[in-house]
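Sequence, structure tokens reproduced for reference:
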Amino acid sequence: MKTNLSFIKAARDKIQLLNQKLLPHKLDYVVCSNGADVAKAIKDMVVRGAPAIGISAAYGMYLTAWEASKKNKKLTLDLLKKQKQQLDAARPTAVNLMWATEQMLQVATPFFAGEPSKAKDAHLKLLLALYEKALEIHNDDAERCLKMSNNAVKYLLTKYPKEKYNILTHCNTGSLATGGIGTALGAIRVLHEKSKINMVYADETRPYLQGSRLTAFELLKDKIPVTLTVDSQAAYLMQKKMIDAVFVGADRIAANGDVANKIGTYSLSVLAKAHRIPFFVVAPKSTFDNKIENGDKIVVEERAAVEVLEIAGRVIAPKVPVVNYSFDVTPQVNITAIFSEDETLE
């Protein structure tokens, strides 16, 4: 299954990231030639979505090594460790970011120990190994997206059979946020392919408007029926029996099944539970963080007040204090099922 959009163009000496801050009005790319460029793009939300920033960070680790080699700088394990720290700090809630940089560091470490580091072509082999690992992380994510999407759809069709479904989704979890068809949006794409979608209701997702700017844009491109809705309207749609299921992604899943995701996800789970509507999370295994016991331990990113006080550079509110958590945590008890590429957790 193919989509009409991709968040990244990768080459040996750079990556180009689709500037998602400009969508849907303009298709423009930000060129990243090293890890610092990638970290800035992640921090500034040029690229967003847990799998996508993990993939970008993997390439960022490679590009740091590439730049050092190209400029005849000393390529050391310490250099890569420092780059990992910078990338990891760009968005602290999404565990896929740390997972990807750790994968890259594990590839690099053996090259700086013992005989491999003394070989004449050691740096060339290291660059090749890092590039191949970044590609692997990228390509594997596409396969994972398809598997978890199929798992979610099989469960829905079996447990909640219906001729066609009205699905509510939050934020953006499609090809702009992953290396493939998406997580939650991937499941929606599979449902559409099976002619099982009546309507997708996309939350606008304040304050960054990922739903209106990105999800509606993706679904329109793929000719999947979509209706945009304001975040605060979800309860009324459920009350009017216009929603059959809620599908969301995840940025981090604790060992007990608590889920950190885009702000507004928790309130949707509460509403879904109150209206007896199934609430599903679709996410790859790289999003699971078994080192964290429960959602209380997840570090939730707070972003700048300007994201709430302004829209597209236009001031919409007086200059007052702002609370702007980028994520919230949904307790496991509110979740009907979590789908990964390997399993279904109820």
Observations:
- The first strand starts at residue 8 and ends at 10.
- Residues 258 and 331 are 5 Å apart (CA to CA).
